[in-house]
Amino acid sequence: MIDVLERWLGPEWPNRVARSDSNLTSTVIGMTGYVAALATWLELALRVERFDGTPGIAKLRKMMNDLDLGRFLHVRAALEIGALAEGMCAGIAFEPELGPAAGPGDVRLTFVDRAPLDIEVRVLLASERWRVVYDWGERLRDVTMAHSYEHSVRFTIDASSVRNAEQFEDLVHTIEDIAVAVRATRSNARTVLESGPSVAAELVDEPTPFHDIDYPPYFEEDGLRRLRGALRDKAEKYVDCAPVWIRLDVLDGLFAFSPWAQDPLGVQLAAISSAIREVLSGYPGAAGVVMSSAATSHDSGSDDDNATVEGVKHSVAVSRRLPLLRRRNTFIVPLHEKAVADVAFWTSMYEREPEWLPAMLEALDLPTVAQINPRSE
Predict the structure, then answer these.
(1) pLDDT given at position 302
(2) Cα–Cα distance measured from residue 329 to residue 340, given in angstroms and rounded to the nearest whole number
(3) How many CA atoms lie less than 13 Å away from 315 in the CB half-sphere?
(4) Which parts of the chain have pLDDT scores under 70?
């Protein structure tokens, strides 16, 4: 499959990915693990080969060629839709024209016995807030470890109220000051900053890399604000054309770090379907929304954790364990009565996703999933 990627991205593509300034390496590998990252590239190669000659595929290749993170993930999602829909006997076209006002869509699925489905893909990446808080967390771990080893102290830190760079820098200086003071006085100490964070340090016989730290929150509210904005932006594009489905991959940390992500699947579905309908109720051009965590979540569970949950107004949530240590949660929310008929198609498509990679590997006489990574079985 390496030769397929070379044809698409050029013979130097691994080096180009490594040198990319678009966070492609850290997002595809660092936040998913190496096995899941392998699955991303493997599935990409299989799908690129599968759709060679398909209408619109050249546009996807051009879109991916500069290795921009957003466009890479956009193409990945479009190819995923095509691959899974093909297994449901759908015809595939990429970048179809939807009309003069809307311009090109992303994927069109055609059927023998029903109307086509036009799909618009949107990938929601991490916000600036998310990236800043991530960097704060990394720095807190480095600072506490350094001072722990230098001064033989163990920290308990509450940084959950930190909201800006000034407060964070005050916290870092306080960590250093209290470590020096505890070592000098040979007694434990605790201080609370005016802005809210607190730092406590105790003497220990042996330095430790492990400290009790409450980190700043990744989301300043329920985590759905940017989701609402992304949906509204997409829906406004299709006011004057036939309704389209919005296929949304949410990679901004919502599925990992928000309070919503800790709820049971049915509760998640109720909250997300309500939020989607609230935003898009006035947009007749939006047939519905299929929102996904993307197939990037590290999963150590079993097939027993798979679930399909039905919610109000025909909404559905699908959670499936995928080959090579991944899981995807998908939420399907129809917005109009005519779109209800599409829900069964979307549901079946994502329920059957775990079968796609093993079937393709077998068809091409390639190593099985178990041979690629025994732990993923």
Answers:
(1) 65
(2) 20
(3) 25
(4) 1, 20-33, 99-102, 219-223, 239-240, 297-303, 376-377
pLDDT at 179: 95
Handedness of CA 302, 304, 305, 308 (dihedral sign): positive
Kindly write down the DSSP assignment for every residue of 261-297, as one continuous string: GGS-HHHHHHHHHHHHHHHHTT-TTEEEEEEE--TTE
The dihedrals phi and psi of 301, each to the nearest 5 degrees, come to -85, -155
Residue with the two structure tokens 């940390």: 253
The answer for residues whose C-beta is within 8 angstroms of residue 80's C-beta and 6 or more apart is 43, 47, 295
Q: According to the model, what pLDDT value does residue 101 have?
A: 64
Does residue 213 sit in helix, strand or coil?
strand
C-alpha 368, offset from chain centre: 26
Distance, CA of 118 to CA of 244 (rounded, Å): 5
Q: Give the tokens for residue 315.
A: 């909404």
What pTM did the predictor assign? 0.83
286-292 vs 244-250, strand pairing mode: parallel
Annotate 243-260 with DSSP letters as a single string: -EEEEEEE-SSHHHHSGG
**The predicted structure's pLDDT at residue 28:** 59
* Whether 18 contacts 64, CB under 8 Å: no
